[in-house]
Amino acid sequence: MISGAYQQRRLIMGWVRGLLIFACGLAVYFFSQTSLIIGPQSIYIAAAVTLVAQGLSQLVNGIRMFRGYRVYRYWTLLVITTLLACNAVMLNMHISNRWLLLSNLAVLLWIFAYGSRSLVGHGKDFVANIFWLCCSLFAMVGLILAIVAVKVGLADQASLDGFGDWSIHAYLVSFFMLIITAVVSLLLLIMHVKAQAGLQAIATLDGLTGVLNRRGLQEAASRMQAVSQRIQLPMGMLIVDLDYFKKVNDVYGHLVGDVVLKSCAETIRAALRGGDVIGRYGGEEFCILMPNTGEQEAMVLAERIRRIIEVTPVSIAGVESMSRETQAIKCTVSVGAVSSETMGYVIDALFAAADQNLYRAKQNGRNRIVSNIEQLLDKSPVKGKPAKRHASVIA
Ligand SMILES: Nc1nc2c(ncn2[C@@H]2O[C@H](COP(=O)(O)OP(=O)(O)OP(=O)(O)O)[C@@H](O)[C@H]2O)c(=O)[nH]1
Fold first, then answer.
1. How is the beta sheet containing 277-280 ordered, strand by strand?
2. Do 360 and 366 meet the contact criterion of CB atoms below 8 Å apart?
3. CA distance linking residue 12 with residue 62, whole number of Å
4. Which atom of ligand 1 is nearest to the CA of 257?
5. How many domains does the chain have?
6. So where does this one cross the membrane (predicted)?
């Protein structure tokens, strides 16, 4: 978080620097329009464009850094030297205004095209759409600069000599300022949205396994319950608990315990259907919420999870502090299953009933599922094979 805030500060300070140089460029341009200038007006305009280009290129560099793209350290230096050198040579050699203007416009066009490319949105989410908006705003400026360049290219010499008085300047300057303000504001909005999403993820995701934490789970359960109840579809819930996990910690250490937890969370997640939600309910307990799932389907999914954990040993080959012979650990889980068909839609009642069924599964010997299905089918609970030992080691 602290390093993220520091990065953001660095980025924003970079943008501020770019905008200040850009503003200096505009100030020089406005000064060139007064009678206070000494010497030819074109020198001031060339200096103004150089400063504007320099400020913009710093801004574009900042945008690239923000997007995580490669930043060319000497890019801003290259822009300023190219422009200064071209302008100095052309002014000293009294080369036609047309070439002076065209070269300046070309550099500005290049910067906007580069910026526009750096702002292309990826994906279809809100942030991607805002990036696309910024991209099109920069592209629009590029297009207008291209039109001005064509106009300069086609204008006759007499008209070019009065270029300083062309009314398009006022429009261009206001347009530049408007677009830059809009793009910077949109980038700040993206920064804010990303920071919010980061905070939301920290608040609702479990740091170790990457699945929802208890709070995220509660929120997901409330949402699922509201929708299921409204459209009168059943919702199922499983609480999956690793058997004899304390012994894994005791025998192999907490580092291995963490690897086992992560791996089991991933294995369970991979076994779920689209729309199912997994969260970490407690230490070595996971909760699975299943929309449109009755008691029978909940049992089917519970059995799939029990089976897949049983047949998928957790590889601990690369874990530090483990001896080379120990390659993998076999685990089993007990599952408490329940659905709104037997317990109704009250979330706390579902959690309590699933917990109660899990307790019964543990009492009955572990590596098995207990549900309320007998209440529906008048049958005894489905049972998996009891585990013979807590965790076997595959050498
Ligand atoms: N490595 C690791 N261990 C954890 C974590 N959270 C909880 N535990 C451990 O999980 C163990 C849970 O032990 P118990 O509640 O006795 O459960 P158990 O040994 O699995 O026994 P049964 O559930 O009855 O089969 C404790 O030793 C906790 O320290 C974690 O994030 N990482």
1. 277-280, 285-291, 235-242, 333-339, 369-370
2. no
3. 8
4. 1
5. 2
6. 12-31, 43-60, 72-91, 97-114, 126-148, 168-190
65-97 in b/e form (b: 16+ CB < 10 A) is bbeeeebeeebbeebbebbeebbeebeeeeeeb
* Ligand 1 first shell, C-beta below 6 A: 208, 241-246, 249, 254, 257-258, 261, 283-284, 362, 366
Choosing from 246, 247, 319, 389 the residue with most ligand 1 atoms within 8 A of its CB, the one to mutate for a pocket test is 246
96 shares its domain with 155:
yes
From ligand 1's centre to the CA of 352, what distance in Å?
20
- How many CA atoms lie within 13 Å of 125's alpha carbon, on the beta-carbon side? 6
Same domain? 287 vs 306: yes
Residue 284 annotated in active site? yes
**Are residues 156 and 228 part of one domain?**
no
> Distance, CA 204 to ligand 1 centroid (Å)?
21
Regarding whether 220 and 194 lie in a shared domain, the answer is no
Q: 22 is written with which tokens?
A: 């850009």
**Claim to verify: residue 137 and residue 56 sit in the same structural domain:** yes
Query: What is the number of the ligand 1 atom nearest to the C-alpha of 208?
Result: 31
Domain containing residue 175: 2-204
Residues 170 and 47 in one domain: yes
Each of the 395 residues of the chain gets a pLDDT tens digit; together they read 445 556 677 778 888 888 999 899 889 888 888 888 887 777 888 888 888 888 888 888 888 888 888 887 777 777 777 777 777 776 666 667 788 788 888 888 988 999 999 999 888 888 899 999 999 999 999 999 999 899 888 888 878 777 766 777 778 888 888 998 899 899 989 988 888 888 888 888 998 999 999 999 999 999 999 999 999 999 999 999 999 999 999 988 888 899 999 999 999 999 999 999 999 998 899 999 999 999 999 999 999 999 999 999 998 876 665 555 667 889 999 999 999 999 999 999 999 999 999 999 999 999 999 998 877 765 444 444 443 333 333 32
Give the closest residue (by CA) to ligand 1 atom 14. Answer: 246
User: pTM of the prediction?
Assistant: 0.61
ipTM of this model? 0.95
